[in-house]
Amino acid sequence: MAFFEEVKSKIKQTSMSTVQKTQEFSEIVKLNSKINETKEKISELYSQIGYELYRQFEKEALPEIPDIADLLSQVSDLHKTINDYQSQINAIQDSRLCPNCGAKVTPGKSFCSECGAKLLSRDKTTENEKACFCSKCGAPLETGAIFCVSCGAKIE
Questions:
Q1: Torsion angle, CA of 17/20/22/23, rounded to 10 degrees?
Q2: Residues in CB range of 29: below 8 A, 6 or more apart
Q3: Which pLDDT value is given to residue 123?
Q4: pLDDT in tens, 84-117
Q5: CB–CB of 53/107 below 8 Å?
Q6: Where are the beta strands (DSSP E) in 20-137?
Q7: At 93, is the secondary structure helix, strand, or coil?
Q8: Over the chain, what is the mean pLDDT?
Q9: d(CA 97, CA 5)
Q10: Average pLDDT for 120-149
């Protein structure tokens, strides 16, 4: 009888593991869908930015463009939202990305298997590494950057 109890226990553990992985996969699919929706919003904002720039160009009034600043701020916020979704996916997968090359890094490793870069532990992540996009213009930031290479803004 002990044999059957052991088999029953292993089947139960396997099914629980399968259910958990299915739930994780479902959550990742939902988050990826949200990322794609957010990217579509960003594309729409980029179109509006282009249209506003063209309108200002026609009027020869390019120095002050208050409507553009609001749109750029919205784009920046959406980039932060994408980063939050990606962080949630990484937490579900218990993984992270190499700050040097972007390759997926196996948890617990000290060096990237793709480029060999030394990896910081999760608790030693700096503020600059958390900020992946410029808060002023929304451009992607280089790891450890102090200033944005697109607009020159100081990274906070």
A1: 180
A2: none
A3: 44
A4: 888 888 777 656 677 788 787 777 777 888 888 8
A5: no
A6: 96-97, 104-105
A7: helix
A8: 77
A9: 42
A10: 63
